[in-house]
Amino acid sequence: MTMTDTAELLRTDEAADQLGLTIRQIYTLIENGDLEGIPRPVEGRAGRWVHVRRSELDAYRARQTV
User: How far is CA 14 from CA 39, 46, 66, in A?
Assistant: First the structure.
């Protein structure tokens, strides 16, 4: 993943803020396939951070206005 790609990734809390949703709703959208989540392993931790591409949010918004 390049530096540009990383700049285009939002944390789930940032994605939630941009869409006016809760973090749980973002995870539900990812689980349902409405948004593509990008897992990012966290060294030294059991879990993973999940990010969402900014373009995914734009595409989701466009689908909601149709």
Answer: 15, 22, 24
Give burial (CB, 10 Å; 0-12/13-18/19+) of 51. buried
Measuring CA to CA, how many Å separate 8 from each of 3, 44, 54? Answer: 9, 25, 6
- pLDDT tens per residue across all 66 residues of the chain: 554 456 699 999 999 999 999 999 999 999 999 999 998 776 776 666 789 999 999 999 999 987
CATH number assigned to the domain covering 3-64: 1.10.1660
